[in-house]
Design goal:
314 residues, alpha/beta, Rossmann fold, Alpha-Beta Plaits, 2 domains, six-stranded mixed beta sheet, four-stranded antiparallel beta sheet, 37% helix, elongated, binds adenosine-5'-triphosphate, binds magnesium ion
């Protein structure tokens, strides 16, 4: 798989604020990549640099397959986080105008605009003014605008965040189709959207990469055994819980042998265990020995959600 985009040591500061602090990642041709991170992580700043709208403070952005003289923007389709449209234009006029701005002739622009408006489900609304479009329609119009010139890479900044559940579904399904034809990079703060769409993830937090790689590999490598206990908050149980948590951290204790980390919140305890079978037997034994009142014991494996929460909060 050849690299379509290579980012090395990319940084950007705004005065004192370091929004992006030296990130490296690659987008391989044909992949769908999610740039995932909480609010303020640096997603929009990164995307604006990739599209040529913002100059990096340092680092490099390479599009290896591109001819030396070509404008990078010709190969990129971009849907911003809050796209702005001219409300008095019709959808067809707007997409045709975008095509001309990207260098298509009038005839090519009109032909491609008609095709893309049909693809995004706006054929019937193409002659209506954009001012009367719903949020979901505007987002689909934004996609037609981004694709009108046939880019190799589609970049979208939070393409579904501002939409209601129906609009989200429409746009997610559209992206699912588009990613079969074009390389896609999109940002989101919603892990579920990344999981649904992408092949690779780049998790950023506070301007730095917290974790990156192929989604499937990350999911398998980080699938760790976890036991959750829900307990009755009586005196005996609380006393046991306190002693137990202390012994998890004490090398030499039996609890430490089976449990690598314990978290006690409300009436529930989450335990990262070293090995499921042994840990489960040990826990059942010690809970019975100490007459701890269990409401529920849940033995399972950590999810990508757990990993994401750890990556963005630690
Ligand atoms: N033009 C600017 N001037 C000053 N600071 C900025 C500017 N743009 C972004 N920042 C700061 O850079 C950091 C990253 O912002 P950015 O918009 O890239 O985050 P984001 O991940 O896109 O967040 P969100 O999920 O809220 O869209 C934030 O601390 C933000 O306040
Ligand atoms: Mg943003």
């Amino acid at each position: 798989m050849s690299a379509l985009l290579e980012v090395t040591g990319l940084s950007r500061s705004f005065g004192e604020v370091q929004a992006v602090k030296g990130i490296d990642f690659t987008v391989a041709e044909g992949r769908c990549v999610a740039l995932l991170g909480p609010n303020g992580a640096g997603k929009t700043t990164t995307i604006r640099m990739l599209t040529g709208l913002l100059k990096p403070t340092s680092g490099s952005i390479e599009y290896p397959g591109r001819a030396e003289s070509a404008d990078i923007r010709a190969g990129i389709g971009y849907l911003p986080q809050s796209p702005a449209f001219y409300p008095w234009m019709t959808g067809f006029e707007f997409v045709t105008y975008a095509g001309k701005l990207c260098g298509l002739s009038g005839a090519e622009s009109r032909r491609s605009a008609g095709e893309w408006l049909e693809r995004v489900g706006l054929k019937d609304a193409a002659k209506r003014r954009i001012g009367g479009y719903s949020g979901g329609m505007k987002q689909r119009l934004g996609l037609a605008q981004a694709l009108v010139h046939g880019p190799k890479l589609l970049i979208m900044d939070e393409p579904v965040s501002a939409l209601d559940p129906l609009g989200r579904r429409e746009v997610l399904e559209l992206i699912t189709q588009l990613k079969r034809e074009t390389t896609v990079l999109f940002s989101t703060h919603v892990l579920h959207d990344a999981e649904e769409l992408c092949d690779d993830i780049v998790i950023i937090r506070d301007g730095r990469i917290a974790l990156q790689g192929e989604l499937e590999t990350i999911r398998n490598e980080h699938r760790l055994p976890v036991i959750e206990l829900l307990l009755e908050p009586d005196e005996v149980t609380i006393k046991w819980a306190k002693t137990f948590i202390a012994s998890v951290d004490a090398a030499g204790e039996e609890a430490h042998r089976y449990v690598s980390r314990a978290e006690w919140r409300g009436n529930s305890m989450t335990l990262d265990v070293r090995e499921m079978e042994g840990a489960r037997e040990y826990l059942l034994r010690t809970l019975a020995d100490h007459k701890v009142k269990i409401v529920r014991l849940n033995a399972g494996y950590s999810t990508l959600e757990d990993l994401f929460m750890k990556a963005v909060s630690s």
